[in-house]
Fold this protein.
Amino acid sequence: MTRRFLFVLGSSRSDGNTELLARRAAEQLPPDVEQQWIDLAEHPLPDFEDLRHDTDHVRPTIGHTALLFDATLAATDIVIASPLYWYSVSAHVKRYLDYWSGWLRTPGVDFKATMAGRTLWGVTALAHEEFEVAAPLIGTLNNSAAYMGMRFGGVLLGNGSKPGDVLRDTDALARAKTFFDQEAPLARFPYEQVTQ
């Protein structure tokens, strides 16, 4: 199966530090790896409506929801590129992940089984020097991957507040060169890591 990377951009502004760092990492991918980039600010999802206990589940066929649904199913690797907003993912990304819970019940699509074994990655830029403050964002992505039975490649962290700052973070740029080369293990919930 040809590797296909879906880059989900979750910033409220274009060409922000997180996107710049993600694009630096993507430059290192082999030319035969397909890439699709979707900016959630340019393709906003409607407010998520939890229909978990209703029967009105249909496959999205039009609009941004259908675009993201189809792109997600087609990807072998999903890269969540979200700035650190209040110590977690952006509202755009949170809404996209909320849609996953609805897609679990889409008729004719075993979304969870389809996603199992695929890889979730993260990229984020933050204004803090202490990367520990990104732990909630990392936890959100790791636990989402664990629930879906996906692999988790970790989060590429960079420092930057003002536009272009991350391009001066030489450590982050060095990590970007090999970020997608690493073997992504099967994601596990933290309590599984402690008790096993």
In short: Residues 4-195 form a domain with the Rossmann fold fold (CATH 3.40.50.360). The chain has one domain: 4-195. The two ends are 32 Å apart (CA to CA). The CA atoms of residues 73 and 114 lie 7 Å apart.
